[in-house]
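The protein record quoted in full:
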Amino acid sequence: MSAATSISDDGAPLPPPPDIPEKADLAAWLGVAAGAIGSLMATLDISIVNASLPTIQGEIGASASEGTWLATSYLVAEIIIIPLTGWLARVFGLRRFLIAAAFFFTLFSIVCGLSTSLAMMIVGRVGQGITGGAMIPTALTIIATRLPKSQQPVGTAIFGLTVIMGPVLGPLVGGWLTENFSWHYAFFINVPIGAILLALLLLGLPKGRMQLDELVNADWLGVLGMILGLGGLTVVLEEGHREQWFESGYIWRLSVIALLGFLMIAAGQIYAKRPVVKLALLRKREFAAVFFLGTILGGSMYGTAYVIPQFLAGIANYNAMQAGLIVFLTGVPAMLMMPLFPILLARVDLRVIVGTGMILLALSCYIDIDLTAESRGGDFVISQLLRGLGTVFCMMFLNQAAISSVSIDDAGDGAGLFNAGRNLGGSVGLALLATLQDGRMEYHRWTIHSALSANSATLQDWLGQQSMTMGGGPDGAEFAMRMLDGMVLRDAMVMAFSDDFTALTVAILIVAPLVLFLRPLPENYQAKVSH
């Protein structure tokens, strides 16, 4: 049986083709380790600059608004390349493609570490995004093509751990390196890791032939559409909030470019002999459910990793390291649960596990709705642990569902679509949460002010007491009013953060029923895993 016929007529995955042994050898596991390390490097570097951003901005002479492009440029490049990795791996061969990606990722990391200007840093970050983005979905491709189905859950657990740990470790590692050494080491740390990765790729992946004829007959309309559509949309989502959305001509132009890109992708799907990304996979009920659940999961993962540090910095006056430690709590369940993943996969219905994960995620956000101005990091411990457990149940098992719901031939396209959906969900979630937060903060601020009566004796007495601490007079009165507005603003911020968590709770619950569309793994598959 060929790989192309590894899906039965009723859509259920069949056992692996004969060319994949029933038990993976050392080389195959070295390949899986390489995929996991590459994925960890790429996801870690999304957020590793966040903690050291003020320091980097000062040294390269960038303003606060310009500094945001250090993260945005990486994210835009990554989101563009992720869906294209399946095609690029076919053209150049998976081994050759990943070796080039690992080498240039390391090289661009050095460029970032040596940067003395904003332009040089952005070049390095774009290069990191392109090459790092190539290493995320290909980790799933290695698992699907190098491991028999009986051992895929172990590989998927390792990959899932890297995807979960990368975003939570990034701010912590970046903050620690900046505080104890220098921000340059947030990039230079990739050099020894990159060397190890290259060695593992050389040892763990078989040589494959290139298919350069695919460059001639490629879906270039789709490739260009991906660049314009996903690139334009990501910049709109990242910059829209700062630019006041469609009040800005810049956002309007980018939106038109993004729309044009998506129209080109659609045309490629219709007219290309082999579209650059196989969107037809979304017609399959089980893969579509995986894709949309992964998108919401991305919004939840990146959204809470954004909201919680913002709250701790703005309300509790935590520094980046302290906030990073609270965010890191979500990774604890991932590390503890990894050994149990294959057992759960074999004995519990996929839909039950993912459904439980969605409920835990919704519960973790619901718990955080009741925040107050006195809340501190300790108040997030329970919700963070629940969030981490929910993320494990969703992410690891959706990773497995993504590769088991498509044929081996489609593993690259499926992995690219799933990971692109997760990252795009993160961008959409961040943009919506930031916009909601600002809008609700202003609403709550003026609602509280309007409820304060200028004729209130209690208020007048309090203002008088605060004024006298500054000696009274006009200066004292101004100080008292500023202090009152600061207290109102703090309470408005807390209420706005609560609104963010309310929105996350509702969004997760709305999409949770999609778990019913997931296809359980075949009985013979589970029997192999349980052995």
The chain has three domains: 18-213, 219-275, 293-531. Residues 1-18, 524-531 have pLDDT under 50 and may be disordered. The radius of gyration is 25 Å. Residues 8 and 115 are 53 Å apart (CA to CA).
